[in-house]
């Protein structure tokens, strides 16, 4: 499965939420000057509560339109309970990083704390 398999279900402010397959909920944001899509995994509750804003914090991408990152790494797929636990212990986030986008050698990671009115 790759980024082209994303099904957009709700649209927000320069972002959307949708699904890969039948059970992977994802958040899409367009990045860079060419509006390349990048996707992070979200929970069903985050999907249901989506208000159109981009405030899921900093998480590793599942996949993106960037060369070499198009395929979903299935080892990164988490259950909703795992995501919620990682949010509580802040292990979804990497501390000390304030840039919007950076590369850590394992894939693009992006920060989605945007409030566009």
Give your account of this protein's structure.
The chain is mainly β and 117 residues long. The chain has one domain (3-114). It has 2 helices and 8 strands. The strands form 2 sheets. It has a 5-stranded antiparallel beta sheet, with no helix packed on it. Strands 5-8-7 form a 3-stranded antiparallel beta sheet, with no helix packed on it. The relative contact order is 0.22.
Features:
8 strands; disordered C terminus; 3-stranded antiparallel β-sheet; mainly beta; 117 residues; 5-stranded antiparallel β-sheet; globular
- Averaging pLDDT over every residue, what do you get? 78
Multimer state: single chain
Helix count equals 2
Residue windows where pLDDT falls under 50 for at least 5 positions: 94-108, 110-117
Helix content bin: 10-25%
Rounded to an integer in angstroms, the radius of gyration calculated over CA atoms is: 13 Å
Strand order of the largest sheet: 1-2-3-4-6
Taken from the alpha-carbon principal axes, the silhouette is globular
Q: What's the number of extended β-strand segments?
A: 8
The computed structural class is mainly beta
Strand residue percentage: 35-45%
Element order, helices and strands?
EEEEHEEHEE
- Number of domain modules: 1
Main sheet, how many strands, which sense, barrel?
A: 5 strands, antiparallel
Report the end-to-end length measured between terminal Cα atoms: 33 Å
């Amino acid at each position: 499965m790759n980024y082209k398999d994303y099904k957009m279900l709700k649209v927000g402010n320069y972002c959307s939420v949708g699904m890969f397959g039948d059970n992977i909920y994802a958040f899409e944001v367009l990045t860079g000057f060419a509006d390349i899509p990048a996707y992070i995994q979200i929970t069903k509750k985050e999907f249901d509560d989506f208000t159109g804003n981009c405030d899921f914090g900093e998480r590793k991408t599942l996949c993106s339109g960037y060369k070499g990152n198009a395929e979903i790494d299935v080892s990164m797929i988490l259950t909703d309970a795992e995501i919620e636990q990682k949010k509580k212990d802040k292990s979804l986030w990497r501390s000390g990083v304030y840039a919007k986008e950076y590369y850590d050698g394992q894939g693009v990671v992006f920060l989605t704390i945007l409030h566009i009115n």
